[in-house]
What we know:
This protein is α+β, with helices and mostly antiparallel strands. The protein has helices spanning 22-30, 53-73, 101-104, 133-145, 193-196; strands at 2-4, 9-12, 35-39, 45-49, 76-78, 84-85, 91-92, 96-100, 122-126, 150-155, 160-164, 171-174, 178-180, 189-191.
Amino acid sequence: MSTDLWTSHVMLHMPDSLRMTDDQLLQFCAVNRELRIERTTEGDLIIMPLAGGETSRANVDISTQLSMWTKRNGTGYAFAHAGFTLPNGAMRSPGAPWILKTLWRKVPKEERQSFAHICPDFVIELKSPTDTISILRAKMDEWIVNGVRLGWLIHPDRQRVFVYRPNLAVEVLTNVTSVSADPELAGFTLDLTAVWDPDSE
Length: 201
């Protein structure tokens, strides 16, 4: 087991004999609901603490905006607190994911109840005080390599948005009040006002 005391993230290195199946991992997460749990491509577990109040509030604001646009647009599904099994075997859980309906409906119905083997088309990750930016940037790279078409890493302390797209350099937006998902999610613009300033509403 390795841990970074500043981030409070713990890596549980799992020997081959103890590596969990998807069903076992789902049960493990179900009985440890106070934790955020992901699985690396090697089968090791990453244990993360629950988000603090301000991070949770900002995540709700971001997810609500994405959900409202999703209902109006009708071409995809927005998810919350969901884990997805990526092509590399890792199980990752983004802050706010979105998947085209045509792709989600190809996932077998029984698999949708677990960590579906599908990579979101779009993900948003919000840095919390317990996250390190280097770990999050590596996670964003993993999303892109596995099929994400657009990814945003939001750094509220520095008011920056890192924009990820396949085969393109990461774009860094500084001190913007909104960010557009065009053309991948045509018409979706995230208002960052409440993320940058919790007392603005």
